[in-house]
From TrEMBL:
<dbReference type="InterPro" id="IPR006311">
    <property type="entry name" value="TAT_signal"/>
</dbReference>
<protein>
    <submittedName>
        <fullName>Iron-siderophore ABC transporter substrate-binding protein</fullName>
    </submittedName>
</protein>
<comment type="similarity">
    <text>Belongs to the bacterial solute-binding protein 8 family.</text>
</comment>
<feature type="signal peptide">
    <location>
        <begin position="1"/>
        <end position="20"/>
    </location>
</feature>
<dbReference type="InterPro" id="IPR051313">
    <property type="entry name" value="Bact_iron-sidero_bind"/>
</dbReference>
<dbReference type="InterPro" id="IPR002491">
    <property type="entry name" value="ABC_transptr_periplasmic_BD"/>
</dbReference>
<keyword id="KW-0732">Signal</keyword>
<feature type="domain" description="Fe/B12 periplasmic-binding">
    <location>
        <begin position="56"/>
        <end position="329"/>
    </location>
</feature>
<dbReference type="Pfam" id="PF01497">
    <property type="entry name" value="Peripla_BP_2"/>
</dbReference>
<keyword id="KW-0813">Transport</keyword>
Length: 331
Protein backbone atom coordinates (compact mmCIF):
# COMPACT_ATOMS: atom_id res chain seq x y z
CA UNK A 1 0.00 0.00 0.00
CA UNK A 2 2.94 2.30 -0.47
CA UNK A 3 2.63 5.46 -2.55
CA UNK A 4 4.82 7.68 -4.74
CA UNK A 5 6.31 11.12 -4.23
CA UNK A 6 4.42 14.04 -5.63
CA UNK A 7 4.69 17.80 -6.01
CA UNK A 8 2.96 20.07 -3.51
CA UNK A 9 -0.17 21.47 -5.02
CA UNK A 10 -0.03 19.54 -8.33
CA UNK A 11 -3.78 19.30 -8.48
CA UNK A 12 -4.71 22.92 -7.88
CA UNK A 13 -6.49 24.29 -10.88
CA UNK A 14 -6.46 21.02 -12.84
CA UNK A 15 -10.03 19.93 -12.24
CA UNK A 16 -13.15 22.01 -11.92
CA UNK A 17 -14.77 19.13 -10.08
CA UNK A 18 -12.10 19.21 -7.39
CA UNK A 19 -12.62 22.92 -6.91
CA UNK A 20 -16.37 22.40 -6.76
CA UNK A 21 -15.94 19.72 -4.11
CA UNK A 22 -13.74 21.99 -2.04
CA UNK A 23 -16.30 24.75 -2.27
CA UNK A 24 -19.06 22.37 -1.30
CA UNK A 25 -17.07 21.23 1.70
CA UNK A 26 -16.73 24.78 2.96
CA UNK A 27 -20.35 25.73 2.27
CA UNK A 28 -22.97 25.71 4.96
CA UNK A 29 -25.84 26.37 2.60
CA UNK A 30 -27.47 23.00 3.23
CA UNK A 31 -28.20 23.93 6.82
CA UNK A 32 -25.99 21.14 8.21
CA UNK A 33 -22.95 23.18 9.18
CA UNK A 34 -23.78 22.62 12.82
CA UNK A 35 -23.25 18.90 12.31
CA UNK A 36 -26.20 17.96 14.53
CA UNK A 37 -26.23 14.18 14.28
CA UNK A 38 -26.74 11.80 17.14
CA UNK A 39 -27.35 9.10 14.51
CA UNK A 40 -26.83 5.36 14.88
CA UNK A 41 -24.20 4.12 12.43
CA UNK A 42 -23.42 0.45 11.71
CA UNK A 43 -20.05 -1.12 11.00
CA UNK A 44 -18.48 -4.59 10.94
CA UNK A 45 -18.67 -4.83 14.73
CA UNK A 46 -22.16 -3.55 15.45
CA UNK A 47 -23.99 -0.28 15.85
CA UNK A 48 -22.66 2.93 17.32
CA UNK A 49 -24.54 6.00 18.49
CA UNK A 50 -22.40 8.90 17.33
CA UNK A 51 -22.35 12.25 19.12
CA UNK A 52 -24.31 15.23 17.90
CA UNK A 53 -22.04 17.92 16.48
CA UNK A 54 -18.67 16.12 16.92
CA UNK A 55 -15.84 18.59 17.40
CA UNK A 56 -12.77 16.36 17.60
CA UNK A 57 -12.76 13.65 14.94
CA UNK A 58 -9.87 11.18 14.75
CA UNK A 59 -9.42 9.44 11.40
CA UNK A 60 -7.95 5.94 11.76
CA UNK A 61 -8.78 4.74 8.24
CA UNK A 62 -6.20 4.75 5.49
CA UNK A 63 -7.93 7.51 3.50
CA UNK A 64 -10.90 8.61 5.63
CA UNK A 65 -9.47 12.09 6.12
CA UNK A 66 -10.45 12.91 2.52
CA UNK A 67 -14.15 12.34 3.11
CA UNK A 68 -13.98 14.08 6.47
CA UNK A 69 -12.27 17.13 4.95
CA UNK A 70 -14.60 17.17 1.93
CA UNK A 71 -17.50 17.43 4.37
CA UNK A 72 -15.99 20.47 6.04
CA UNK A 73 -14.48 18.95 9.20
CA UNK A 74 -10.76 19.11 10.04
CA UNK A 75 -9.68 15.89 11.82
CA UNK A 76 -7.55 16.12 14.95
CA UNK A 77 -5.71 12.91 14.05
CA UNK A 78 -5.00 11.12 10.77
CA UNK A 79 -3.52 7.79 9.70
CA UNK A 80 -0.36 8.00 7.58
CA UNK A 81 -0.86 5.58 4.70
CA UNK A 82 2.09 6.60 2.52
CA UNK A 83 4.60 8.31 4.75
CA UNK A 84 5.62 11.00 2.29
CA UNK A 85 2.86 13.62 2.32
CA UNK A 86 2.64 16.70 4.57
CA UNK A 87 0.26 15.98 7.43
CA UNK A 88 -0.35 12.56 5.82
CA UNK A 89 -2.70 14.36 3.41
CA UNK A 90 -2.28 14.54 -0.37
CA UNK A 91 -2.38 17.84 -2.31
CA UNK A 92 -5.95 17.28 -3.49
CA UNK A 93 -7.04 17.57 0.16
CA UNK A 94 -4.26 19.36 2.01
CA UNK A 95 -5.55 22.91 1.57
CA UNK A 96 -8.78 21.89 3.30
CA UNK A 97 -6.78 21.45 6.51
CA UNK A 98 -6.73 25.24 6.69
CA UNK A 99 -3.24 25.28 8.18
CA UNK A 100 -4.00 22.67 10.84
CA UNK A 101 -1.52 19.86 11.56
CA UNK A 102 -3.38 16.75 12.75
CA UNK A 103 -1.60 14.27 14.98
CA UNK A 104 -0.33 11.20 13.12
CA UNK A 105 -2.06 8.36 14.95
CA UNK A 106 -0.62 5.43 13.02
CA UNK A 107 1.14 4.27 9.87
CA UNK A 108 0.80 1.45 7.36
CA UNK A 109 3.93 -0.13 8.84
CA UNK A 110 3.08 0.17 12.55
CA UNK A 111 -0.71 0.13 12.55
CA UNK A 112 -2.93 2.29 14.73
CA UNK A 113 -1.47 3.64 17.96
CA UNK A 114 -4.32 3.66 20.48
CA UNK A 115 -2.19 5.87 22.72
CA UNK A 116 -1.80 8.51 20.03
CA UNK A 117 -5.51 8.37 19.25
CA UNK A 118 -6.17 8.94 22.94
CA UNK A 119 -3.82 11.94 22.94
CA UNK A 120 -6.12 13.72 20.46
CA UNK A 121 -8.99 13.55 22.96
CA UNK A 122 -11.50 12.54 20.27
CA UNK A 123 -15.26 12.65 20.57
CA UNK A 124 -15.63 10.53 17.40
CA UNK A 125 -13.32 8.01 15.70
CA UNK A 126 -13.79 7.10 12.03
CA UNK A 127 -12.02 4.42 9.97
CA UNK A 128 -14.19 3.09 7.15
CA UNK A 129 -11.35 2.22 4.77
CA UNK A 130 -9.44 -0.04 7.12
CA UNK A 131 -8.82 -3.49 8.48
CA UNK A 132 -9.52 -2.63 12.11
CA UNK A 133 -9.78 -5.79 14.20
CA UNK A 134 -12.31 -6.51 16.94
CA UNK A 135 -9.60 -5.95 19.57
CA UNK A 136 -8.64 -2.60 18.07
CA UNK A 137 -12.28 -1.63 17.75
CA UNK A 138 -12.86 -2.40 21.43
CA UNK A 139 -9.87 -0.33 22.49
CA UNK A 140 -10.85 2.60 20.30
CA UNK A 141 -14.48 2.43 21.42
CA UNK A 142 -13.29 2.83 25.00
CA UNK A 143 -11.94 6.25 23.98
CA UNK A 144 -14.89 7.53 21.93
CA UNK A 145 -17.74 6.29 19.71
CA UNK A 146 -16.04 4.45 16.84
CA UNK A 147 -17.21 3.63 13.31
CA UNK A 148 -14.92 1.47 11.17
CA UNK A 149 -15.26 -0.66 8.03
CA UNK A 150 -18.81 -1.72 7.07
CA UNK A 151 -19.64 -5.41 7.27
CA UNK A 152 -21.04 -5.53 3.74
CA UNK A 153 -17.59 -5.32 2.15
CA UNK A 154 -14.13 -6.83 2.48
CA UNK A 155 -11.64 -4.99 4.66
CA UNK A 156 -10.18 -2.08 2.66
CA UNK A 157 -13.06 -2.59 0.24
CA UNK A 158 -15.65 0.07 1.06
CA UNK A 159 -16.77 1.87 -2.12
CA UNK A 160 -16.07 5.59 -2.13
CA UNK A 161 -19.80 6.32 -2.39
CA UNK A 162 -20.59 4.29 0.73
CA UNK A 163 -17.60 5.71 2.57
CA UNK A 164 -18.68 9.28 1.87
CA UNK A 165 -22.25 8.62 2.95
CA UNK A 166 -21.21 6.75 6.12
CA UNK A 167 -18.88 9.57 7.12
CA UNK A 168 -21.56 12.09 6.21
CA UNK A 169 -24.09 10.35 8.42
CA UNK A 170 -21.62 10.17 11.32
CA UNK A 171 -20.88 13.88 10.99
CA UNK A 172 -24.52 14.87 10.58
CA UNK A 173 -23.88 16.09 7.03
CA UNK A 174 -25.70 13.58 4.90
CA UNK A 175 -27.00 16.18 2.45
CA UNK A 176 -23.46 17.34 1.71
CA UNK A 177 -22.31 13.75 1.35
CA UNK A 178 -25.05 13.02 -1.19
CA UNK A 179 -24.14 16.13 -3.17
CA UNK A 180 -20.46 15.19 -3.25
CA UNK A 181 -21.25 11.66 -4.38
CA UNK A 182 -23.57 12.90 -7.12
CA UNK A 183 -20.92 15.28 -8.45
CA UNK A 184 -18.22 12.62 -8.76
CA UNK A 185 -20.69 10.00 -10.02
CA UNK A 186 -21.68 12.35 -12.84
CA UNK A 187 -18.04 12.63 -13.85
CA UNK A 188 -17.79 8.82 -13.98
CA UNK A 189 -20.94 8.71 -16.11
CA UNK A 190 -19.66 11.38 -18.48
CA UNK A 191 -16.25 9.75 -18.92
CA UNK A 192 -17.80 6.31 -19.42
CA UNK A 193 -20.17 7.67 -22.07
CA UNK A 194 -17.24 9.27 -23.87
CA UNK A 195 -15.48 5.89 -24.11
CA UNK A 196 -17.79 3.22 -25.55
CA UNK A 197 -14.68 1.10 -26.16
CA UNK A 198 -14.53 0.43 -22.39
CA UNK A 199 -17.98 -1.13 -22.17
CA UNK A 200 -17.96 -4.84 -21.38
CA UNK A 201 -14.19 -5.23 -21.69
CA UNK A 202 -12.50 -7.39 -19.04
CA UNK A 203 -9.84 -5.87 -16.80
CA UNK A 204 -7.29 -7.26 -14.36
CA UNK A 205 -5.40 -5.00 -11.97
CA UNK A 206 -2.21 -6.53 -10.62
CA UNK A 207 0.81 -5.57 -8.57
CA UNK A 208 4.24 -6.84 -7.57
CA UNK A 209 4.02 -8.59 -4.20
CA UNK A 210 7.69 -9.44 -3.81
CA UNK A 211 10.67 -10.84 -5.73
CA UNK A 212 9.16 -13.16 -8.31
CA UNK A 213 5.74 -12.81 -6.70
CA UNK A 214 2.70 -11.11 -8.16
CA UNK A 215 -0.88 -10.55 -7.07
CA UNK A 216 -4.22 -9.41 -8.42
CA UNK A 217 -6.83 -7.16 -6.86
CA UNK A 218 -10.35 -8.43 -6.28
CA UNK A 219 -13.66 -6.84 -7.33
CA UNK A 220 -13.97 -4.96 -4.03
CA UNK A 221 -10.63 -3.17 -4.31
CA UNK A 222 -11.05 0.54 -5.13
CA UNK A 223 -8.61 0.33 -8.05
CA UNK A 224 -10.72 -2.37 -9.68
CA UNK A 225 -13.92 -0.49 -8.98
CA UNK A 226 -12.43 2.53 -10.72
CA UNK A 227 -12.40 0.56 -13.96
CA UNK A 228 -15.71 -1.26 -13.49
CA UNK A 229 -17.42 2.08 -12.88
CA UNK A 230 -16.14 3.08 -16.30
CA UNK A 231 -17.81 0.06 -17.92
CA UNK A 232 -15.17 -2.67 -17.60
CA UNK A 233 -16.05 -6.08 -16.12
CA UNK A 234 -14.21 -8.57 -13.93
CA UNK A 235 -13.03 -11.84 -15.50
CA UNK A 236 -13.68 -15.14 -13.68
CA UNK A 237 -10.17 -15.27 -12.17
CA UNK A 238 -10.81 -12.14 -10.10
CA UNK A 239 -14.48 -12.83 -9.36
CA UNK A 240 -13.28 -15.64 -7.11
CA UNK A 241 -11.54 -13.15 -4.79
CA UNK A 242 -14.31 -12.48 -2.29
CA UNK A 243 -12.88 -12.24 1.23
CA UNK A 244 -10.00 -9.87 0.62
CA UNK A 245 -9.04 -7.05 -1.73
CA UNK A 246 -5.79 -8.66 -2.97
CA UNK A 247 -4.71 -12.22 -3.67
CA UNK A 248 -1.20 -13.49 -4.50
CA UNK A 249 -0.72 -15.57 -7.63
CA UNK A 250 2.16 -17.83 -8.57
CA UNK A 251 4.25 -17.37 -11.69
CA UNK A 252 2.42 -20.30 -13.25
CA UNK A 253 -0.92 -18.69 -12.48
CA UNK A 254 0.04 -15.67 -14.55
CA UNK A 255 -1.36 -17.57 -17.50
CA UNK A 256 -4.78 -16.92 -15.95
CA UNK A 257 -4.10 -13.20 -15.67
CA UNK A 258 -5.31 -12.42 -19.15
CA UNK A 259 -7.93 -9.83 -19.98
CA UNK A 260 -8.83 -7.23 -22.57
CA UNK A 261 -6.89 -4.75 -20.42
CA UNK A 262 -4.09 -5.64 -18.01
CA UNK A 263 -3.27 -2.88 -15.52
CA UNK A 264 -0.26 -2.98 -13.21
CA UNK A 265 -0.29 -0.71 -10.18
CA UNK A 266 3.28 0.28 -9.32
CA UNK A 267 3.04 3.26 -6.99
CA UNK A 268 5.73 4.06 -4.47
CA UNK A 269 8.59 3.83 -6.94
CA UNK A 270 8.05 0.15 -7.70
CA UNK A 271 7.80 0.64 -11.46
CA UNK A 272 11.37 -0.35 -12.29
CA UNK A 273 11.24 -3.38 -9.98
CA UNK A 274 7.97 -4.49 -11.55
CA UNK A 275 9.34 -4.16 -15.08
CA UNK A 276 12.44 -6.17 -14.15
CA UNK A 277 10.36 -8.95 -12.59
CA UNK A 278 8.01 -9.10 -15.56
CA UNK A 279 10.93 -9.20 -18.00
CA UNK A 280 12.38 -12.13 -16.04
CA UNK A 281 9.10 -14.07 -16.24
CA UNK A 282 8.83 -15.77 -19.66
CA UNK A 283 5.22 -16.90 -19.22
CA UNK A 284 4.15 -13.26 -18.86
CA UNK A 285 5.38 -12.40 -22.32
CA UNK A 286 3.11 -15.07 -23.78
CA UNK A 287 -0.11 -13.47 -22.59
CA UNK A 288 -2.23 -12.21 -25.49
CA UNK A 289 -2.72 -8.86 -23.75
CA UNK A 290 1.05 -8.43 -23.56
CA UNK A 291 1.67 -9.49 -27.16
CA UNK A 292 -1.05 -7.14 -28.40
CA UNK A 293 0.01 -4.16 -26.28
CA UNK A 294 -3.07 -4.01 -24.06
CA UNK A 295 -1.03 -3.42 -20.90
CA UNK A 296 -0.36 -0.30 -18.87
CA UNK A 297 1.74 0.34 -15.77
CA UNK A 298 0.32 3.10 -13.55
CA UNK A 299 2.90 4.61 -11.22
CA UNK A 300 2.42 8.39 -11.06
CA UNK A 301 0.18 10.81 -9.16
CA UNK A 302 -2.84 9.71 -11.18
CA UNK A 303 -2.23 6.14 -10.03
CA UNK A 304 -2.18 7.33 -6.42
CA UNK A 305 -5.37 9.33 -6.91
CA UNK A 306 -7.04 6.20 -8.27
CA UNK A 307 -5.72 4.17 -5.34
CA UNK A 308 -6.99 6.62 -2.74
CA UNK A 309 -10.35 6.53 -4.51
CA UNK A 310 -12.11 9.30 -2.61
CA UNK A 311 -14.44 12.12 -3.55
CA UNK A 312 -11.42 14.42 -3.57
CA UNK A 313 -8.96 12.22 -5.50
CA UNK A 314 -11.12 10.53 -8.12
CA UNK A 315 -11.77 13.59 -10.33
CA UNK A 316 -8.03 13.87 -10.99
CA UNK A 317 -7.72 10.18 -11.79
CA UNK A 318 -10.68 10.42 -14.14
CA UNK A 319 -9.03 13.28 -16.00
CA UNK A 320 -5.73 11.47 -16.44
CA UNK A 321 -6.18 7.69 -16.72
CA UNK A 322 -8.97 7.09 -19.31
CA UNK A 323 -7.13 8.99 -22.07
CA UNK A 324 -4.13 6.71 -21.51
CA UNK A 325 -6.01 3.42 -21.72
CA UNK A 326 -8.37 4.29 -24.59
CA UNK A 327 -5.67 3.90 -27.30
CA UNK A 328 -4.82 0.42 -26.00
CA UNK A 329 -8.35 -0.78 -26.76
CA UNK A 330 -8.80 0.91 -30.14
CA UNK A 331 -5.75 -0.37 -32.00
Amino acid sequence: MAGGLTRRGFLLGTSGVVLALAAAACSSGDGESGGSSGATVSDKYGETVVPANPQRVASVGYNDQDAILALGVVPVGVFDWYGNQPDATWPWAHDLLGGAHPTIIGTANTGISVEKVASTNPDLILGTYSGVTQTEHDKLSALAPTVTQPKEFADYGVPWQDQTRIVGKALGRSDKADALVASVQKKFTDVSAAHPEFQGKTVIVGALKGPGQFGVYGPEDPKVRFFTELGFVNPPVTQQITDTNFAPISTEQLTLANADLLVWYAGGGFGDKLRAELAATPVYGELPAVKEGRVIILEDEAAEAMTWSTVLSLPYALDKIPPRIAPLLTK
